[in-house]
Amino acid sequence: MNERAYDVLAELLSNRGVDVASVEGRLRTQRVETPSWGYGNSGTRFKVFPQLGVPRDPFEKLADAAEVHRLTGICPSVAIHIPWDRVDDYGELAQYAGSLGMTIGAVNPNLFQEEDYRLGSVCNPDEAVRRRATDHLIECVEIGREVGSDILSLWFADGTNYAGQDSFVERRHRMLECLSEIYEAMPESMRLLLEYKPFEPAFYHTDLSDWGAALTMCQKLGHRAEVLVDLGHHLQGANIEHIVALLLDEGRLGGFHFNSRKYADDDLIVGSVNPFELFLIYVELVEAEETTRIDYMIDQAHNIEPKIEAMILSVMNLQDAYAKALLVDRAKLDGARRSGDVLLAHRLLLEAYNTDVRHLCAKVREDLGASADPISAFRESGYLEKVVDERLEGAGAGWG
Ligand code: RM4
Ligand code: MN
Ligand code: MN
């Protein structure tokens, strides 16, 4: 760590009235879950460029995720996707995670890659297909029990491609019927997170197109059903921080899938396109998260960039955004808002956003036993060279 740079920053912040120790304390409690699928090969519908050293199975994905945690100090859990991460013995998978100092986080069912799901899964007009989808969801509840996870994270590809194809309302009722059964099957300790998305792979309508569709479904299910916000799942121009505030106010913001996008659901490195938006989202979260459980997860797919480094950079960008949000002078902001001082209120946000917090984050990572400079440390560690050698045989895991 660059101690001089840190000291200068800490002094500057103290002079501004920031309680640096408490900001650092909050930063040490930040947690970000990384996705198993982010370590496997992925691409676009045009081409998947496979990378050397990519994990071949869920165990190797956990090992890569553990490396991200070792270097950042805030990523001790991994989300899994079933069937991509199907194993014979989930107890063994959980035990292996434990041996790496990791846990298994959200269980993500997959209801979009079977022939049967051409017209949807839980909204399909065919009752037999809906039964099959529901059974898979119940299987995932069981897997959650076996791996010690308390989150069932749901995203449905359901929707229609042409006007008139099916009844919006009947489809909604079918989904509600299925999710009610799942909700009943979940242990008391488990939460159901419901993710919305306005387009793709369905192109006329999706059954959970936006936060309102997801929220009303959650409200019907019960208090352990909450909305998940994926940053890539909005139409252009949507004010995501406003959506975040609304869901928090309703007590139904369950979690995030962080990523970045320029055009659609691009799943790029977090904060790479619009870091200011990421900061504004954290500004809404800073107070609420003191009393609410929110699960922060990354949902990324790396097409050309090295996967572990991309994940580390995403985590660092999340630390950076959170740190800046913690610097906002809340008392002054409150005063500016009440007195109608539009520009002062705005400038108070800019003041926090424009602070270079990198040395503060580096210090926090070191406090956690991680690395001040995680990407350089990763490059120097020889981990990638080692796994490239070890994983020469067999195919890298991907979406299949
Ligand atoms: C979807 C959505 C889900 C993710 C799948 C792979 O667009 O973001 O969360 O599990 O992609
Ligand atoms: Mn997602
Ligand atoms: Mn997505």
Structure, explained:
By secondary structure, this protein is of the alpha/beta class. It is 47% helix and 11% strand. The chain is built from 15 helices and ten strands. It has helices spanning 3-15, 20-29, 58-72, 90-99, 127-147, 168-185, 211-221, 240-249, 275-288, 307-326, 330-338, 342-353, 358-367, 374-381, 383-390, and strands at 34-35, 77-82, 103-109, 151-155, 159-160, 191-195, 205-206, 225-230, 253-258, 295-298. The strands form three sheets. Strands 4-6-8-9-10 form a five-stranded parallel beta sheet. It has a three-stranded parallel beta sheet with strand order 1-2-3. A two-stranded antiparallel ribbon has the order 5-7. Helix 9 links the parallel strand 9 (253-258) and strand 10. The longest helix is centred in the middle third of the chain and has 21 residues, at 127-147. The protein is globular and about 65 Å long. The model has no long low-confidence stretch (mean pLDDT 97). The site of one manganese (II) ion (MN) has 5 residues, from loops. The site of one manganese (II) ion has 5 residues, from loops.
Write the layout of secondary structure elements.
Layout (H helix, E strand, L loop, with lengths): L2 H13 L4 H10 L4 E2 L22 H15 L4 E6 L7 H10 L3 E7 L17 H21 L3 E5 L3 E2 L7 H18 L5 E5 L9 E2 L4 H11 L3 E6 L9 H10 L3 E6 L16 H14 L6 E4 L8 H20 L3 H9 L3 H12 L4 H10 L6 H8 L1 H8 L10
Parallel strand pairs: 1-2, 2-3, 4-6, 6-8, 8-9, 9-10
Antiparallel strand pairs: 5-7
Helix pairs in contact: 2-10, 2-13, 3-10, 3-14, 5-6, 8-9, 9-10, 11-12
The structure holds beta-L-rhamnopyranose (RM4) and manganese (II) ion (2 copies).
One manganese (II) ion (MN) binds next to loops.
